[in-house]
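Appendix B.2, paired examples.
Example (i):
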Amino acid sequence: MKKRFIAVIVMIAVVASLIISAQGAVAANYPAPLETSFENTGDMRYDIVQRALSQVGYVEGTGSWNAFGNYFGNPTGSWCAYFVQWCAVQAGVPTSILPESRVGRVSDYWETASVELEFHPVNDYANPYTPQAGDLVIYRANRTYYDTVNGTILTYPTANTIACRFGRSQKNGVYTNISHIGIVARDAAYPTNNGSQINYAGFSMVDGNWHKSVVSRFELYENITGFVAIKYTEPEDQPTPTPAPEPYDPTIPGNPEIYVGQWPVLSKGSRGENVALLQTMLNYYFGAGLAVDGEFGSATQRAVIRYQQQNLLKMDGIVGPATWKKLTRLVQTTANYDIRITRQIQSLLNNRFGIATSVDGIYGPRTANSVMTLQAITGIAKDGKVGPETWRILVCASMQ
């Protein structure tokens, strides 16, 4: 009887293991969209970018299966256009503003659109354009022509058209022409051209089906065809962070006190959160390709020396006050931020200061509110932005 009971238990365990394994296989083969805590603010331009950023890291399943095409009934098709459309739906952007891509075709966004769209070829030298967050990025494999009088796209040239340049993709050092679409993630700093040639500049973007994944990356103007400027409805009231509490009085029992010390000195062999932040910043500034593991090894040392060289600092591979001050000159706001840097800010708020913040890489109103809480505790300006003063607290401070 005892042996039979044991055999039944073993059989149940085996079946349970098979079920769990099967569920894991299903999840891997048919991956759902990544979960996010982001809530729409009503600012469509802002919300569509946040929805796109929330999916960075998504990888398609077996046989090109993806959740974005599946949402529109085509789970194994080329899904860059479906990703844009999915983000629009999640952000509450109606098809009267951003049209559907019926079969996932990039061309649907201008050739068959029933709404008015503004297309800006990068080589329209008479009309340089500076892309905004929420614009669509267009790559085109086939030659098309932009009618500068009527603002339409044609497949043949006329007296009023200019030939749009091809969109290019590089793989293993080889460029190929592609049709592709993505979303501009941040307002660009420079226009597409200077009136005579395409600028040697670029912009930040998020795109789906970029080598089978959703990625956030920097792209050059010279590699794309142009931009579609979507006419999003502007909200009546722009979202603002919830006001943070007044500065804490450390003399009241239970209220924390933050001690702001000197800039930490990091060198080979250092470990911890500040090293992870350093690695993330070096990846952000010049694509150092470092593993963000909190371990200051040889690769991190070489990247530090390279950064110091570029910024006319002492090239000793040691991160002291001068290097930190250069690194922390970037400002993170709800309208202009990097997902990788934001994750580090959120982790520091949680782990170092005990300020509950979702570590999702989205610098939205909730994260801005957490930043203002830290600013209130330390008595600096409560603007919800992570600039030089706030960076010094994040890096140098500790709870007492």
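Example (ii):
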Amino acid sequence: MATVDNVRNELIDKIMSIKNRAFLEALDQLISSSLPQSESIELTQEQETMLEMSEQDLKEGRLISQEAMDKRNLEWLNAM
């Protein structure tokens, strides 16, 4: 069974090959009309706490670059 990402990527590939402007505009209208207009997402208390902790980390400068995180992860994986 194809994952959502696989299906999405296959659709993108097909759309990229379409040259008919009217078809693309119709497809755009179809997709736009099927999207929810405003969807609220309810967060759990744990998710809200994690977001608050992240904001505090940003304020206090507790950051790490992606490169440093990749290096740390690689070292951890190699230690196993």
